[in-house]
Amino acid sequence: MTVQVETLEKLQRRITLTLPVTSISGEVETRLKKLARTVKADGFRPGKVPMSVVAQRYGYSVQYEVMNDKVGEAFNSAANEAKLRVAGMPKITQKDEAADGVMAFDATFEVYPEVKIGDLSAVSVERVSTDVTEAAIDKTVDILRKQRRTFQQRPSSEGAQETDRVTIDFEGKIDGEPFAGGKADAFQFIVGEGQMLPQFDQGVRGMKAGDNKTFPVAFPDDYQGKDVAGKEADFLVTMKKIEAQHLPEVNEAFVKTLGIQDATVEALRADVKKNLEREVKFRVLSRNKAAVMDALVGAAELDVPTALVEGETERMIEGARADLKQRGVKDADKAPIPPELFKDQAERRVRLGLVVAELVRTNNLQAKPEQLQAHIEEMSQSYEKPAEVMRWYLSDRQRMAEVEAIVIESNVTAHVLGLAKLSDKVLPFDELMTA
Asked: How far is 9 from 111, CA to CA, in rounded Å?
């Protein structure tokens, strides 16, 4: 085998491969003979089919298979010999001209780039933190109370108020004409909880059971219903029923309904605080990790292999189709999704992946077994049966690979935060949780 390596542009390379014709023809003959032992044909006993018949029926496919294997072996051998880190699959084309007794091929491909990471001590990163306050605990307890609230019908003399559950009939018209989705009977929502547009929510307040009322509602320009976005509709609303909410008192009986063993209010608040601190920790880490990754992308210089971007783009398209299928979209696996939708995001992912890999390699930031164990233990604590969750992770290689990726990113985040110029910012609890 003769190997020639050419540098085309940036990351693109070309290797010329030459293979003796005899090595291909000899392998084709060997495989056909092996195939002849089991092949069946009308008029012949198994294993007695003449080679001429076997060659006529299977010769082309076997030749194609051997060519692929031989060229693949030759390419891998040449790439290893030249110490090339190949990015993506090579494009192989047969050359028209070659010396007698040989076949020649051109393999065009890309190599992984050299990654240059700048001085991380000159990089600026905003590091956020958040405290779990008593107010945050109070708010969470209120959410737990709302999850267990009951409703009791109001007297007919009382109008709808904040937190009431109302049952209404409504019909909306735009310029006097009904529109799709603008009508419903016995529709329920809770006043003041953001389930309806603000003007609609405000319009039903004060209405009593049996009242009819017409009021305008302006749909915002970015409303999900494209046909009505930016338009104003008149809604005729009939109030059918009004129910006032009743929240349970925070006492031992309430705590018992939550399954907390030590059925005291203090135990409830301690449990809520522990869960909030765990959630805050993960969200803060995620926020800081994103800031670090943005900084790394800006601090690194590298050429991005087109083959890797194309591969990542295809994975993102398949992910989008899988999401559509999960939502029940018909023929989602054939949905025409333009690659341009994901190209920029795919390129950033590939660029960031190469930068992170270089940083991990040069600073020994690989995930250690004890880190993986600690991460799984921490995640499992938010479930009812932590031991089962841990076994679920530890029993699957793919799940463990996902955990390893998370731990590596955390190691990289900690490494960069230890070097970069930091500006610390305390985020309010509500801002962090709603981001």
From this structure: 11
